[in-house]
Amino acid sequence: MGRLDGKVILLSAAAQGIGRAAAIAFAKEGAMVIATDINESKLRELEEYSGIQTRLLDVTSREQIENLAKEIERIDVLCNVAGFVHHGTILECEETDWNFTMNLNIRSMYLMIKTFLPKMLAKKSGNIINMSSVASSIKGVVNRCVYSTSKAAIIGLTKSIAADFIGQGIRCNCICPGTVDTPSLHERIQARPNPEQALKDFLARQKTGRMATAEEVAHLFVYLASDESAYMTGNELIIDGGWSL
């Protein structure tokens, strides 16, 4: 039997990177996965895996989220993965950058949880997994002002949900990765004036000498989604190869 047999898991940002790896890992462990994203072409690639359904979803749209909720009768695990990494200090962060990041990184989680939590409360059982980061209240990271602020807010949101609903069968934890080798990371590296140096800089700060793989982070998602972690709630789980030490 799979570790997630019978569980219905709703996942955002599933088209690539950590979200994609988590969706595949969930399905391989027996879950019925509803994978969402705004990237239709990449998202559809997941349909080749047994147990994965796909839905186009803009997690910043209350209307789209509420329409999706009408389609889903039951949900056991909600995984909020969608996010954006802004590069720069506060002086290089315009108000439009601030608003965009906060809207995608934290407001989207507010909307998703507020919409789907009642379905969990109705059956007195539910599990929420949020994507935060070591670049948050855990560690100060240069050129990550608004990103780190939004990720710190996710830790606060996670603990608040956990505290408020612990007596009603709800768990809520968040995952805090360090640098992960994903398509979005390579896009950001290529956007820098000197991509080769940017890659060297990323690798230089890795105490293990390498970045994490998306699949390694997905293993942690599987653990938190499974009953193996039934006694865990309100935690920020760090997976960063020792970067925050």
TrEMBL record:
Single Gene Ontology BP annotation: siderophore biosynthetic process
Catalytic reactions on record: (R)-3-hydroxybutanoate + NAD(+) = acetoacetate + NADH + H(+)
Keyword list, A-Z: Cytoplasm, Lipid metabolism, NAD, Oxidoreductase
Cited CDD domains: DHRS6_like_SDR_c
Main location: cytoplasm
EC annotation from Swiss-Prot or TrEMBL: 1.1.1.104, 1.1.1.30
EC supergroup of this enzyme: oxidoreductase
Subcellular location: Cytoplasm
Family of the protein in this entry: Belongs to the short-chain dehydrogenases/reductases (SDR) family.
UniProt name for this protein: Dehydrogenase/reductase SDR family member 6
Species of origin: Chelonoidis abingdonii (Abingdon island giant tortoise)
Name of encoding gene: BDH2
